[in-house]
Amino acid sequence: MFKATIYVTLKDSVLDPQGVAVKGSLHTLGFEGVRDVRIGKRVEVLLECESRAEAEKQIKELSEKVLSNPVIENFTFELEEVA
């Protein structure tokens, strides 16, 4: 069994209104050194596969088709074998 941690973030070219709002709040609270904030998603998936290669293939496919919008988002993932 494999555990994937998938990170979905907006592409750099896409405005992140949540990030802008959080940045404004941080500045209001005195955190003037904060230059940029980007908000994303973290998803954990447990997956039964025969091999690491198959798990990577399935995680890439489900991330592209379900978890992210490839037009405006990127994703990365970490994969570990679990008992």
UniProtKB/TrEMBL annotation:
Keyword Ligase assigned to the entry: answer is yes
**Segments passing through the bilayer:** none
Task: Please tell me where this protein is predominantly located.
Answer: cytoplasm
Query: What are the GO MF terms of this UniProt record?
Result: ATP binding; phosphoribosylformylglycinamidine synthase activity
Family from the record: Belongs to the PurS family.
Identify the metabolic or biological route this protein is part of: Purine metabolism; IMP biosynthesis via de novo pathway; 5-amino-1-(5-phospho-D-ribosyl)imidazole from N(2)-formyl-N(1)-(5-phospho-D-ribosyl)glycinamide: step 1/2
Sorted alphabetically, the Gene Ontology BP terms of this entry are: 'de novo' IMP biosynthetic process
The family database entries (InterPro entries) matched by this protein are listed as: PurS, PurS-like_sf
Q: Where in the cell is the protein located?
A: Cytoplasm
Return the Gene3D superfamilies for the record: Phosphoribosylformylglycinamidine synthase subunit PurS (3.30.1280.10)
Q: Which reaction does it catalyse?
A: N(2)-formyl-N(1)-(5-phospho-beta-D-ribosyl)glycinamide + L-glutamine + ATP + H2O = 2-formamido-N(1)-(5-O-phospho-beta-D-ribosyl)acetamidine + L-glutamate + ADP + phosphate + H(+)
Q: What is its EC number?
A: 6.3.5.3
Protein name as catalogued: Phosphoribosylformylglycinamidine synthase subunit PurS
- Pfam families referenced in this protein's UniProt entry, alphabetically: PurS
Primary role: Part of the phosphoribosylformylglycinamidine synthase complex involved in the purines biosynthetic pathway. Catalyzes the ATP-dependent conversion of formylglycinamide ribonucleotide (FGAR) and glutamine to yield formylglycinamidine ribonucleotide (FGAM) and glutamate. The FGAM synthase complex is composed of three subunits. PurQ produces an ammonia molecule by converting glutamine to glutamate. PurL transfers the ammonia molecule to FGAR to form FGAM in an ATP-dependent manner.
Q: What class of enzyme is it?
A: ligase
Q: Report the GO terms under cellular component.
A: cytoplasm
Q: What organism, scientifically named, is this protein from?
A: Laceyella tengchongensis
Subunit and interaction comment: Part of the FGAM synthase complex composed of 1 PurL, 1 PurQ and 2 PurS subunits.
Keyword vocabulary terms for this entry: ATP-binding, Cytoplasm, Ligase, Nucleotide-binding, Purine biosynthesis
UniProt key word Nucleotide-binding: yes
